[in-house]
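Repro case for the chain-ordering regression, as requested:
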Amino acid sequence: MNVTRRQFFGTTAALAGMAVAPGLLLIEIRQANSATRASSKVRWGMLVDTTRCVEGCTACVTACNKENGLSGGTGPDDSQWIRKIELKEKSTGRALSLPVMCQHCAKPPCVDVCPTGASFKRADGIVLVDRHLCIGCRYCMMACPYKARSFVHEPLHDQKPDVPRGQGCVEACTLCVQRVDRGREPACVEACRTEGRDALLFGDLNDPGSAIARRMREAGARQIRADLALDTGVRYQGF
Amino acid sequence: MAAIALREIEGRSRGWWALFALAGALVLGMLFAWHAMETRGHVITGMTNQVVWGLPHVVAVFLILAASGALNVASTASAFDKRFYKPLAPLSAWLALVLLAGGLAVLGLDLGRSDRLVVAMTHFNFKSIFAWNMFLYSGFFAIVGAYLWTLLDRAVGRHATLAGRVAFVWRLVLTTGTGSIFGFLIAREAYASALLAPTFIVLSIAYGMAIYLLVLIGACAGAGRPLGRGVVERIGRLLGWFVLAGLYFVAVFHLTNLYLAKQAGVERFLLVEGGIYTRLFWIGQVLLGSVVPLVILWSPATRGRRGATVAAAALVVLGGLAQMYVTIIGAQAWPLDLFPGYEMRSSFYDGVIHRYAPSLPEAALALGGLAIALGGALLGVKFLKLLPASLSDETLAPGDGAH
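-- result from build under test --
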């Protein structure tokens, strides 16, 4: 085969270009990621107004399941990232309904006990599980006072590309981090508003001017198991 | 007291092979169970999102405790320089190693991602008591292994006292770590007590000594080695003290909990209304696992008798398993109280007692851990000089063997 000098240089340049291009692309992606990297100036949180939450409404649960690709099953082995709890005060009989999910604690016991560091808290306060580091020991589930975590007991199919899950790993509410990083609200908050309840409010707890901070300042808010002093990112009004 | 020769056993008897075959079959069953859990998921176990740790953890924690306790005989010999126990020390150290291996195998194979063990060994969160335990376990293997070497090889025998003392301290720290796995859990009402660490230390000595006695009596009977009634009586009497101390710690633990109003619910559940857990506590742990063995080990009619001591030690082991079942599973069966003062219900089983029934695969996993310890013990007495040629009362002279 006769190859002219011009052809040789041309082919070499093309091959070099093909070799370098993916690297350049990765650099671009990395730069794009660092632009949206979680900032410690922000602390994402959620406020639940239990006076607007009604028994029997599960719009938040359905939206969470759809957004995150959960089956919606309620068997003892099924994952439930958010559930509605119906409460009745023992002394007065007063009834309440509210959603409970990962409370995104500032001092999360799940992160403390995780042997590999798979459970971690982002700079913006969102508590997540690194699916590549989780060994499935379930110590975090033993440690969580809110029963917020689930273990994937079965093989998974048809996962959502934005929400990687894994058999044998532990998972929980991510505050819909895939949406938050794109400037959107968690799916449960959006669904509650669409339903006309508007019982859930999402925002930056660190920003005194944010709607969530204002509402908490004006009407106060409680933490579940406040006695544990975990400084939760999810707060409640009306209980 | 003349030096007592340590010799391997022949290990060719029908009994040895039968036990070894049984251990092998159980380990095989463990591997099948592990493979099934890896491919089909933990859905084939009785563990759920409510009771997240099950029978494998009951047996694994029991074995890890027993490992540390099995070393007690050796510690008494080397760390406290009691001559009577010196010929008994090598078997004690070996049992500690194989029991720990059995317990860790169960824990490792139960992981949701047991293929990621290397992750667990390369990524550490030093705030996690689990991560600390990984160092405590591997350190235990290294230190007890070195200690055993000083016991078996005369060339390094002069270091036995030092190695024994280091091993003694290490085992105390290790069991503190095991107890703290539960003691640090603020979420669960049945845990979150600093008392769990010392309680686990005392219980570990009772479990480990009971297993030691079973193996010693079994090996001597199987290999036809003399074993004096005085020797059995002396170790049995010591076991009795640790069983009693275990009861004391358990009583203090529950009494302090009963004093706290917020703990009343879980205590009533475990001690009165908990069904299987209440029965396992009172009948398994207290009556059969503690009171009956104490009577056998200390009563003049039965103390020192081999058959009676085997029965007592076996009861201590069964009582220990019952205790771990109540401690690990009973505590999870009780629902978390997210809203004190309220009744709760939800699709996620809030506010109700959680059900748990172990399945065949997890039972196979748990039995496999026991089988690893059994197989290891059988191989040890066959290939290592662990067992004294004679443990007759005349040889060991317990009367003047206090120092």
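Ordering looks correct now. The first strand of chain B starts at residue 6 and ends at 7.
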